[in-house]
Design goal:
This protein is an all-alpha fold and 276 residues long. The protein has one domain (3-67, 96-275). 77% of the residues lie in helices and 0% in strands. The chain has 13 helices and no strands. Helix 3 runs antiparallel to helix 11 (192-215) and helix 8 runs parallel beside helix 10. The radius of gyration is 19 Å and the shape is globular. The two termini are 22 Å apart.
Length: 276
């Protein structure tokens, strides 16, 4: 199969899997094994992640602009901690931005100190398949939760930290980052749209951190510059469409429908690993 076609397929998988809760990392691992690209395409993976990261910036550009403006108060809080309580109680956008920072702490610590251990514990196709099956179970348990949940202004520090813990678990390929974080929000009693918005905004520092860790000293690739561009564009376009469709889906339908795909791919992967 030509590398350009492989670039398109991998970009499509990254774009759809980053936002639809089916684990982009798990599917990329499986497809790269199929393509014989395992262990040599870190640079291409990084590029694809940057493509989907751009989607979050575009989709939530208005929210991010407000949050950046609100977080200008943060240096003053460091100088005068007494102001923190006042800002936290009176400025909802500052509060939301602070909760995102708190939610980033678990994945930062676990990513720095335990990333290799977590990834190696599932460093096989069978492990990825098992993780996908678990992702399907989590999605099924979330079910129809969140239809009348709490909105962003009622989120707590513990909500943010626990959602951050859920995100850190998704370092393991096969565990869906979006699935785990959105479901964590639903289990905590948040509304679907609030859980989704917090999840995708929380992905920004997580993806940036992962890109830095992955790219360090490992930039070789068999893809050409043109194939890089094609893969990133496909990831970005498909990612934007996937995110827009997921938000519409969350407003109306049962979130657990995606569990069927995770179970099908996960069980097929586990069976293939056992037989071959």
């Amino acid at each position: 199969m030509p590398l350009l076609v492989k670039a398109v397929i991998l970009g499509l998988i990254q774009g759809l899997g980053e936002f639809i809760p089916i684990s982009s990392s798990g599917h990329l691992v499986l497809v790269q094994i199929l393509f014989g690209l395992v262990g040599s395409e870190v640079a291409f993976d990084v590029a694809l992640h940057l493509g989907t990261l751009a989607v979050v910036f575009i989709f939530y550009r208005k929210t991010l602009t407000v949050l950046f403006l609100e977080l200008r108060f943060l240096p003053g809080v460091l100088v005068c901690p007494v102001r923190l309580k006042t800002l936290y109680q009176t400025r909802p956008d500052f509060r939301f931005g602070l909760l995102l920072i708190i939610g980033t702490l678990p994945v930062t610590l676990i990513g720095l100190f335990f990333k290799d251990i977590l990834e190696k514990s599932f460093d096989s196709t069978g492990g990825v398949g098992a993780a996908l099956v678990i992702t399907g179970i989590v999605l099924r348990l979330a079910g129809r939760r969140g239809r009348n949940g709490r909105e962003a202004e009622y989120m707590t520090i513990s909500d943010a930290f626990l959602i951050g813990l859920a995100q850190s678990v998704a370092i393991v390929p096969g565990f869906s980052r979006s699935g785990f974080t959105i479901c964590a929000g639903l289990f905590l009693g948040l509304s679907r749209l609030t859980a989704a918005r917090f999840s995708f905004l929380l992905s920004i520092p997580a993806i940036f951190g992962a890109v830095i860790l992955e790219a360090k000293g490992r930039l070789e690739s068999s893809f050409t510059a043109l194939q890089f561009v094609v893969g990133v564009v496909v990831a970005a376009v498909s990612g934007y469409l996937a995110l827009a469709l997921l938000i519409k889906f969350l407003k109306k339908d049962d979130f657990s429908v995606f569990s069927w795909w995770c179970w099908a791919v996960g069980l097929l992967t586990m069976a293939s690993a056992a037989l071959f």
